[in-house]
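Dear H.,

Thanks for agreeing to be a second pair of eyes. The structure we're designing against is below in token form, covering all 616 positions.
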């Protein structure tokens, strides 16, 4: 009964939570209505079968006691009693087996159906989150650690699934079972049932108090679990640094502290959870004692049979675990709701960098590029570019040099529209990049940067990605011919080392290209950019990981590659810079000098000073 009176606050939903649940229902659960309804049918069967047990107990006890009573009274002979017992067993045994079989089978079907719905809902949530992240801005994506992102897809999604399953199982199956059992109890003997009704409300207060504690700790434990995921990700992806700097002990200590904290929090949590059981146990004992005392008194008066007493006790015994499950449901649901809130937050991420409704497709790009009074400030308030204006003709190669933090990478990010300018405008062939379709803008450029991204796929596929970007439906490199890939690889001085690999172009590169050297990875990235054949080339320290020999080869490749394209190159190496048509020297977000290598050396300004520093 305790649970029934608590029903109103089992899912203590506030306005915001109601919206969350409503949305989950509308967008994710409703489409599985058929499976859900079928699950409910089988839940009802389970509940009915459970309640039917009490009749079975009553029948068995009443018939047995009647037989025994008859024998004691001498009204029935021993032989007659034996025949009656045999008939009784023949009747009861199939019923017991039949009832448990029906109940077991229904439980199985219901369980599979509920899990299927929950898994589908969770899978859809994961897909929606991932799609939202793919659409979101570079800035939004990088503003949180990878571990935090991963935690949404693993921990949070699991919490939602658990809450969903517990809700269907406990709130529907168990509550229905409980209602039927209480109904049966009252049907069998309402006076005895009233005794139970008097005892159980005593449990409500302590259980509510414990629940509150559990909720607090549980929230703490979840947050901490996210923290552990983030720490693990950080530490394991930095293995190289950890090893070479002898940081193993430091890392073990750092992670160890987090694991210890997890033990403490979870111990606190299970201790609170374990408190519920003794409370229920003692109350159960009081209820049983009360029913027994009252029942025996009723039996003595001839107002009740032994079967009724056993049936009521059986109902009580069957109902107790359901009531207990309902008692802890609230916590699970609250956890699930908090996780759902975070999940929907990801799904609702609105990209700030968007296309204008009348955005045009950038076609036949010549590669003229202009910055007009461009200023840019990062989200944290760092002003990286100040009132920058310049024009670049198609086919020009611009080298960006200057002290670190001067704004070189930021310029490249702005051209690719990974960030939007705070002030001013950037145009390609005279069209403001804010007014062109994002895919066509990015199709017009190829970026090669120092942090090279290779996917765990074949070498051929990793080069082939260069041309598949325009066709998001076709992620494999199938629409790029093997010949094209080879030509690009040759131009990037990568062909020779690739054919030397175990499976040539079909060799898998391992996660993040881990099986290749830094220089090899860089040449694959260059081959990808060459294959892309884009009119604008953005090179961010693109040759930094090359050894002298391959740099020589790549340099030649780069010269071919840069011909007829507009190139922005951030480079420290003199050769790259020397060959540039113009050099922009950036300091504190402004161009402080510009010109050819010769002009700038003659000027003897910041560029000459930096050069002197480099070769001193
Ligand atoms: P460079 O490439 O010349 O070394 P950057 O363009 O990377 O310089 O950085 C320019 C300025 O912007 C620096 O002050 C740097 O600290 C800051 N900055 C770069 N990236 C970010 C970011 N994601 N968030 C905030 N500030 C940034």
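And this is the sequence the design step returned. I haven't edited it by hand at all.
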């Amino acid at each position: 009964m305790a649970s029934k009176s608590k029903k109103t606050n089992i899912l203590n939903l506030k306005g915001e939570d109601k919206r969350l649940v409503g949305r989950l229902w509308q967008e994710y659960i409703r489409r599985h209505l058929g499976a859900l309804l079928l699950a409910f049918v089988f839940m009802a069967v389970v509940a009915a079968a459970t309640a039917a047990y009490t009749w079975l107990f009553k029948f068995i006890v009443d018939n047995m006691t009647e037989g025994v009573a008859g024998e004691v009274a001498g009204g029935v002979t021993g032989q007659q009693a034996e025949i009656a017992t045999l008939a009784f067993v023949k009747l009861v045994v199939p019923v017991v087996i039949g009832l448990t079989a029906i109940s077991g089978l229904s439980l199985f079907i219901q369980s599979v159906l509920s899990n299927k719905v929950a898994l589908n809902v969770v899978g859809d949530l994961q897909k929606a989150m991932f799609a939202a992240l793919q659409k979101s801005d570079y800035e939004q994506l990088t503003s949180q650690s990878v571990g935090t992102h991963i935690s949404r897809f693993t921990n949070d999604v699991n919490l939602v699934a658990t809450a969903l399953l517990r809700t269907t199982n406990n709130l529907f199956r168990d509550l229905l079972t409980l209602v039927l059992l209480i109904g049966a109890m009252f049907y069998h003997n309402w006076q005895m049932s009233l005794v139970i009704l008097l005892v159980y409300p005593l449990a409500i207060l302590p259980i509510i108090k414990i629940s509150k504690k559990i909720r607090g700790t549980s929230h703490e434990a979840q947050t901490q679990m996210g923290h552990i995921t983030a720490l693990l990700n950080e530490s394991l992806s930095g293995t190289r640094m950890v090893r070479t700097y002898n940081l193993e002990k430091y890392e073990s200590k750092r992670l160890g502290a987090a694991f210890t904290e997890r033990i403490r929090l979870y111990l606190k949590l299970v201790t609170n959870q374990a408190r519920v059981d003794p409370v229920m146990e003692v109350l159960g004992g009081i209820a049983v004692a009360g029913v027994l005392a009252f029942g025996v008194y009723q039996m003595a008066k001839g107002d009740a049979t032994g079967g009724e007493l056993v049936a009521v006790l059986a109902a009580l015994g069957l109902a107790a675990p359901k009531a207990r499950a309902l008692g802890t449901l609230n916590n699970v649901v609250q956890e699930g709701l908090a996780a759902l809130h975070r999940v929907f937050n990801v799904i609702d991420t609105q990209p700030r960098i968007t296309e204008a409704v009348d955005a045009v497709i950038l076609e036949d790009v010549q590669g003229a590029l202009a910055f007009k009074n461009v200023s840019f400030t990062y989200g944290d308030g760092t002003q990286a570019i100040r009132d920058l204006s310049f024009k670049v003709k198609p086919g020009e190669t611009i080298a960006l040099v200057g002290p670190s933090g001067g704004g070189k990478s930021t310029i490249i990010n702005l051209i690719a529209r990974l960030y939007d300018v705070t002030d001013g405008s950037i145009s390609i062939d005279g069209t403001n990049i804010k007014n062109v379709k994002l895919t066509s803008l990015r199709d017009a450029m190829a970026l090669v940067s120092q942090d090279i991204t290779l996917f765990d796929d074949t070498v051929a596929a990793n080069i082939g990605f260069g041309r598949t970007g325009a066709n998001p439906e076709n992620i494999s490199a199938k629409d790029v011919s093997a010949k094209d890939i080879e030509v690009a690889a040759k131009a990037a001085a990568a062909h020779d080392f690739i054919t030397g690999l175990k499976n040539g172009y079909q060799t898998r590169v391992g996660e993040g290209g881990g099986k290749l050297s830094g220089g090899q990875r860089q040449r694959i990235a260059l081959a990808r950019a060459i294959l892309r054949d884009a009119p604008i080339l953005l090179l961010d320290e693109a040759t930094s990981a090359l050894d002298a020999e391959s740099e020589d080869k790549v340099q030649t490749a780069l010269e071919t590659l840069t011909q007829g394209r507009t190139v922005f190159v951030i480079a420290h190496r003199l050769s790259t810079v020397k060959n540039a048509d113009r050099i922009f020297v950036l300091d504190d977000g402004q161009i402080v000098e510009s010109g050819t290598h010769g002009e700038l050396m003659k000027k003897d300004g910041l560029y000459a000073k930096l050069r002197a520093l480099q070769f001193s």
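Two observations from my side: Residues 296 and 302 are 10 Å apart (CA to CA). Residues 378, 380, 382, 384, 404-410 surround adenosine-5'-diphosphate (CB under 6 Å).

Warmly,
E.
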